[in-house]
Specification:
25% of the residues lie in helices and 15% in strands. By secondary structure, it is α/β, with parallel strands linked by helices. The protein folds into three domains: 386 residues, Glycosidases (TIM Barrel), CATH 3.20.20.80; 59 residues, Oligo-1,6-glucosidase, domain 2 (Alpha-Beta Complex), CATH 3.90.400; 58 residues, Golgi alpha-mannosidase II (Immunoglobulin-like). Helix 6 packs parallel to helix 7. It binds alpha-D-glucopyranose.
Length: 565
């Protein structure tokens, strides 16, 4: 038996801000949280880049869909070296996306619709355009300003070699040499792009600054923070060489050495301190870890009672589409978070991975591709969508909290034939054109089939080209259309809410090689991964299905069914 006991309370009321509060029930333990990637959601001014007023104008879509909260990827002032994950000022809005007043308006309007708002916090690195980094460059070696980052002398004759062998997650070395007094000087560490220097989290000013940034946004009314690269802030003190290629993922095996840049024990003290700040505010504010940490037992340490509230479950996202793999990851995830009393989270897509409607259309066992482009093996689009719909219905029936990524409710595939010249993800350049990167999952959303930029904005402009087939995925082609992916999501979210699935308990009924069946409350969920159709147990009333059943009522391959027995 697995499940989360999240407390009781059926009486609902609205607080002063209009948000629906359920006494005694912690909203985040069962919430469905919708990720908005602001560049690509809705463009109000026609410059081809989405913005905050665009989001505010489309909030009705989210309440109609039936989600509980939104998480906004970064909208802060930034040179956009990594699409805003290079923050130059943590307390303002980039003019690309609007003004600070637009953020306030978005938060207020979301709350008045009963939607919670989570913002992205990027503490591992700043932008190289951040005031602190400019000061560090100007102040020179040994200065206090350099202590806030990770500057080191190089190795070898004249310090011409980087201080260690670490690689950037985006490819190439994790160190860049600066010029000191007009000559080649020290090196600084950047686990990501050159424009994203890593902060030194041993420095008290760094710690104090982020406590203040937390308060800045908490005071503006946000419900929490998604913490970027939460497993990276603290590095092993000796910065020892790591003779492996760089990956954002920490070590898989619990007893094997962990990479010296990921998942160091020292990160936990930082989050305990942050938790105390959040707890000093009313209204159940939350911290969500973006920590690419395996195995799930190590990940669970981030959500101990005095640390973060949630952590993304990337092991689930990465699991193969087979009954044994899905059974194993679901069971292990529930056990690991139960052990620390935290809710489990589930996620299938985000702005860093190939969309699941395409990922699942690749042969089972394909290693996680870092983007797909012209000339690469192309996914089977129909198979991918069929499996994606089945995977989504399976996910939304699990107890815990689920994350959706904008566009997945339309069944959007990855843009798998994006011209390489259009690519903007630094991964493409830094990997020497060997990794396509993440642009294919970031293409602006189609809202209206027959409008310019498919309704993304008032003009044809779109910062990444939308594929010609986008019209068929547009919201207005799916809204009210029985069987559409949009209506599949809406019905699933309504039933999930009505049946309290997020706060339920999972009992496995069947976990074979081809079929998984579990019960959550009065709902039974069956996914058929096998080649042959299988019967629905006699007398069962089908409530929802990811695709039509056979004429004789059997469940075909790659279909999930929710039924009441
Ligand atoms: C996280 C973000 C990703 C970004 C990276 C560096 O993994 O999700 O988009 O590139 O951190 O900030």
């Amino acid at each position: 038996m697995h499940g989360s006991n999240t407390g009781e309370g059926s009486e609902h009321h609205r607080d002063a801000a209009g948000t629906v509060r359920r006494p005694g029930r912690r909203w985040w333990t069962e919430a469905v949280i919708y990720q908005i990637y602001p560049r690509s959601f809705a463009d109000s001014d026609g410059d081809g880049i989405g913005d905050l007023p665009g989001i505010t104008a489309r909030l009705g879509h989210l309440t109609e869909l039936g989600v509980d909260a939104v998480w906004l990827s970064p909208f802060y002032p930034s040179p956009q070296a990594d699409a805003g994950y290079d923050v130059a000022d943590y307390r303002d809005v980039d003019p690309l996306f609007g003004r600070l007043a637009d953020a306030d308006k978005l938060i207020a309007e979301a709350r008045s619709r009963g939607l919670r708002v989570i913002v992205d916090l990027v503490p591992n690195h700043t932008s190289s355009a951040h005031r602190w980094f400019l000061e560090a460059l100007a102040a020179g070696p040994g200065s206090p300003a350099r202590q806030r980052y990770v500057f080191r002398d190089g190795k070898g004759p004249e310090g011409a070699e980087p201080p260690n062998d670490w690689q950037s997650v985006f490819g190439g070395p994790a160190w860049t040499r600066v010029t000191d007094d007009g000559h080649p000087g020290q090196w600084y560490l950047h686990l990501f792009d050159t424009g994203q220097p890593d902060l030194n989290w041993d420095h008290p000013e760094v710690r104090a600054e982020f406590l203040d940034i937390l308060r800045f946004w908490l005071d503006r009314g946000v419900d929490g923070f998604r913490v970027d690269v939460a497993h990276g802030l603290v590095k092993q003190a000796d910065l020892a060489d790591w003779h492996e290629p760089q990956e954002i993922l920490s070590g898989k095996e619990i007893d094997k050495p962990r990479p010296p840049m990921w998942d160091q024990d020292g990160v936990h003290e930082i989050y305990r301190e942050w938790r105390r700040v959040l707890d000093s505010y009313d209204g159940e504010r939350v911290l969500v870890a973006e920590a690419w940490v395996e195995p799930v037992e190590r990940l669970a340490a981030y959500v101990r009672p005095d640390e973060m509230h949630q952590a993304f479950n990337f092991e689930y996202l990465l699991a193969a589409w087979t009954a044994p793999a899905q059974y194993a990851v679901i069971t292990r995830s529930l056990e690991a978070t139960d052990a620390v009393g935290a809710p489990t989270t589930w996620v299938l897509s985000n702005h860093d991975v190939v969309r699941h409607a395409s990922r699942l259309g690749l042969p089972i066992g394909t290693v996680r591709p870092n983007g797909i482009g012209i000339g690469d093996e192309q996914p089977d689009a129909a198979l991918g969508l069929r499996r994606a719909r089945a995977a989504t219905l399976l996910m939304l029936a699990l107890p815990g909290s689920a994350y959706l990524y904008q566009g997945e409710e339309l069944g959007l595939p990855e843009h798998t034939t994006l011209p390489d010249e259009a690519r903007q993800d630094p991964t493409w350049e830094r990997s020497g054109h060997t990794l396509r990167g993440r642009d294919g999952c970031r293409v602006p959303i189609p809202w209206e089939a027959d409008a310019p930029s498919y309704g993304f904005g008032p003009t044809d402009a779109s910062w990444l080209p939308q594929p010609p087939l986008w019209a068929e995925y547009a919201l207005d082609r799916q809204r009210g259309v029985p069987g559409s992916t949009y209506e599949l999501y809406r019905t699933a979210l309504r039933l999930r809410h009505e049946h309290g699935l997020g706060r339920g308990t999972l009992f496995w009924l069947e976990s074979g090689d081809e079929v998984l069946t579990f019960r959550n409350g009065r709902l039974t969920v069956l996914t058929n991964f096998g080649d042959a159709s299988v019967p629905v147990p006699g007398g069962a009333e089908v409530l929802h299905a990811s695709a039509p059943l056979d004429e004789d009522g059997r469940v075909p391959t790659d279909v999930t069914v929710w039924f009441r027995s």
